[in-house]
Amino acid sequence: MTAPLLDIEDLSVRFGGHEAVRGVSFSMGRERLGIVGESGAGKSMLGRAIMRLSPPGAAMTAKRLAFDGIDLLQTDMRGVRGKRIGLVFQDPRFSLNPAMTVGEQIEEVLRVHRSLRPRAARDEALKLIGGMQIRDPIAVLRRYPHQLSGGMGQRAMIAMMLAPNPDLLIADEPTSALDASVASGVLALLDREVARRGMAIILISHDLDLVASFCDRVLVMLAGEIVETLAASNLAAARHPYTRKLLSARLKLEA
Amino acid sequence: MIEAQAITARHGANAVVRDVSFAVAAGESFGIVGESGSGKSTLLRVIAGLHEHWSGGLVIDGMPQGRRRPRGFGRVAQMVFQDPYGSLHPRQTVDRALAEPLIVQGFGHDRARILAALDAVGLEARHRFRYPHQLSGGQRQRVAIARALMLEPKLLLLDEPTSALDAAVQAEIVALLGRLRAERGVTFILVSHSLAVVAASCERAAVMQEGLFVEEAAIADLRRGNLRDPYARELFAASLGFRRG
Amino acid sequence: MSMIGAWLASDTPSTYRQAVAGRFWRGTLGLRHQPMILTGTSIVLVFAVIAIAAPLIAPYSPTAQDLALNLRPPSAAHWLGTDELGRDILARLIWGARITLGIVALVSVITAPIGLILGCAAGYAGGWIEAALMRVTDVFLALPRLILALAFVAASGPGIENAVLAIAIVAWPPYARVARAETLALKHAEFIEAARLAGASPLRIVLRHILPLCLPSVIVRMSLDMAGVILTAAGLGFLGLGAQPPSPEWGAMIASGRQYMVDQWWVAAMPGIAIAAVSLAFNLLGDGMRDWLDPKQK
To answer: Which residue of A27, B64, B78, C145 could cross-link C170, Cys pair, CB 3.0 to 4.6 Å?
Structure first.
């Protein structure tokens, strides 16, 4: 068995007087892992803790936090964050720099992480955004984040995160702010890119159906702890009462 | 219960609701599905009397409605808002929030009615003197529903009542609304971006796009995707959830 | 004690009183971590106690003259020295605290409610009512405070009552501005729309729903302004337009002491220090309150 891509043991985050993440352990290979839980369950805090991005005032502890053999507790995160692990947030309009065009931001990533020259970076940025199923890629590159629709912004964000060819993408509620018809397009795009690049993805969502259909394996979080790990194909095997509650609470469109 | 004739509503120069007509019978539950910017919330606010820039004909409970609503309108129609964090006054206890409609309509601060309302929405007497920040999102939404029912309105306008809630809580609120409707025979107009929520709570629904009703269908047809309009079908397909390629 | 503590800290209050007391209690506990508020409040409280207890603690009468003992430096008999008429400066400062704090209290009682109500009404009403009210506040804001107060006192005659009125007239517009800004942000909140749907009248919505939420910003603004009020009052006193002799107003004391500045510095310096201390205390209080109450700062 090869070493796992991400290996976490006993990770905790204390924030605002309580433990937002409590002794979480899991490891993953180049697979699709889903983390599901309701708001406040600590799933977003966990996603950020992997990147060593915790809000001010939060204290993170872990016995082990290793990515591809690198001890993230010791290393300088700049070589990893954004380069080997990408992070996609819920609302791109808040996570992109409002003062730079989309093109400038993607080019900057390419220059910093892949040491491309300006001309090459511009060509590569166009190629990346062109792969995002956008009608007029050049126009999108010239726009500022506030000039983009939600779906377009999320595509730009994904393009930017994919620019350095990361090994792992953490997507935190990437489609919750989008309308259903737009969300399905963004998910299809993510799905295709993950398959094509053979990278790993952690999909964080409150939507059990979404996580189960997108991922191979699902971690269920409740009050900062992982209460159950399930194969996505076998949700019916869930034993934990909370997971069972989530399963029964699903509103199904089809009768 | 409600008859809308050629309603057009504007935000500035933009017509966000265009020439919409529909009728809802007393006791019926009517859903309006649409994505952001489709004008569905504005339409609901026109009915509630919270949006003034509109034209067309609107008859609610046999009374033609103008731009300003009479004070007694509160006893005819009430609204439940999307954001349970924004729809309760942050400095007022649950008791104050529930007493307000009674006091305003001249019923006085009726303790028994407040306790009964709490009970009806599945809250306990101990929640009565809490402030909103001491309640969970689901509990707040229950308070908001209780407040809307204080004056025993005939028509309840629901603006995305579950969208801000977690999946498990969402199902509880949908169940609560269903039970209240069965018990009291209130007419519902429910606006949502989610076909699943509308399918779970309504008997008939309209699909709205860019200010227009593009399709009106019975829920059975909606569930089967038995729809004519291409956009409505697209929405249905997207609502089935993500399928791995 | 622990029972009262538990009653106050209860997350499930059973009466309205308990809910309000509990919220107040949690707020007070939060104050422990606010050194600026604590320092400011302590200094203000010390001055307030001094003002109230003036007849008991003042070593001499503030107006008793002893020309044989004029312009004496601080000594065991006169801790802060005596002024040009041989009056004890400490006694005058102690009695003067009454005047200064009295002016502050009166001005706040007059200005804050006026500004608050006008601002909320303007913000909620919108349209021409808002435009008219806000242009009036702009006119007041456009003129320098002290000049406007001076003009008012000059027209209505010097004296402490007119000084209070003058300061009040120039001090309310900022509260109206703050209250209007808050109201505009709150006007379309869903809980306000819910109140409208219940049938609440605009007056009821403004007074019972919007006004309480504007209070924190106005209180913050008020505590920040109090230093300015004290300085304006002292300025009027200094120019001879506020409190009249022999009343021991601090600004007037500086004015009469200024001719002896070089040789008998304490005559002007002692009231100066008092003014600085109280202004500083109110400023600390205001800054602390802003950090504590203003959610936008967090």
So the answer is: C145
Predicted confidence pLDDT, tens digits, chain B (245 residues) = 999 999 999 988 889 999 999 999 999 999 999 988 899 999 999 999 999 899 999 999 999 998 888 888 999 999 999 888 889 998 899 999 999 999 999 998 989 999 999 999 999 988 999 888 888 889 999 999 999 999 999 999 999 998 888 888 888 999 999 999 999 999 999 999 989 999 999 999 999 999 999 999 999 999 998 999 999 998 898 888 777 76
Contact B171 A207 (CB under 8 A): no
Mutation target among A152, A187, A253, A254 for the B interface, most CBs of B within 10 A: A253
Q: Are residues C273 and C288 in the same domain?
A: yes
In the block, tokens 């400490």 appear at C90
CA proximity to C89, closest of C264, C219, C211: C264
Domain range annotation of chain B: 2-87+152-239
Strand residue runs (E) in chain B: 2-11, 14-24, 29-34, 54-60, 63-64, 77-80, 155-159, 187-192, 204-209, 212-218
pLDDT higher than threshold 90 for residue A184: no
What number of residues does chain C have? 298
Q: Which of C13, C199, C209 sits opposite B129 (nearest CB)?
A: C13
Which letter does DSSP use for residue C280 in this model?
H
User: Domain limits at C260?
Assistant: 34-297
Quick one: DSSP state of residue B68? Answer: S
pLDDT band at A255 (very low <50, low <70, confident <90, very high): low
The ipTM assigned to this model is 0.89
Shortest Cα distance, chain C CAs vs residue B236, angstroms: 30
Chains that touch B (3 or more CB pairs under 8 A): A, C
Instruction: Please tell me which of the candidates A179, A210, A254 has its beta carbon nearest to residue B35.
Output: A179
Residues of B in contact with C15 (CB under 8 A): 129
A173 burial (CB, 10 Å; 0-12 / 13-18 / 19+) is: buried
Taking domain B2-87+152-239, whether its CATH number is 3.40.50.300 is answered by yes
Same domain, C19 and C63: no
CATH 3.30.300.30 fits A6-248, yes or no: no
CATH of the domain at C216: 1.10.3720.10
Size of interface A-B (CB pairs under 8 A): 81
- The verdict on C196 and C81 lying in the same domain is yes
Report the number of distinct structural domains present in chain C: 2
Contact between C225 and C172 under an 8 Å Cβ cutoff? The reply is no
> How would you classify the pairing of strands B63-64 and B54-60?
antiparallel
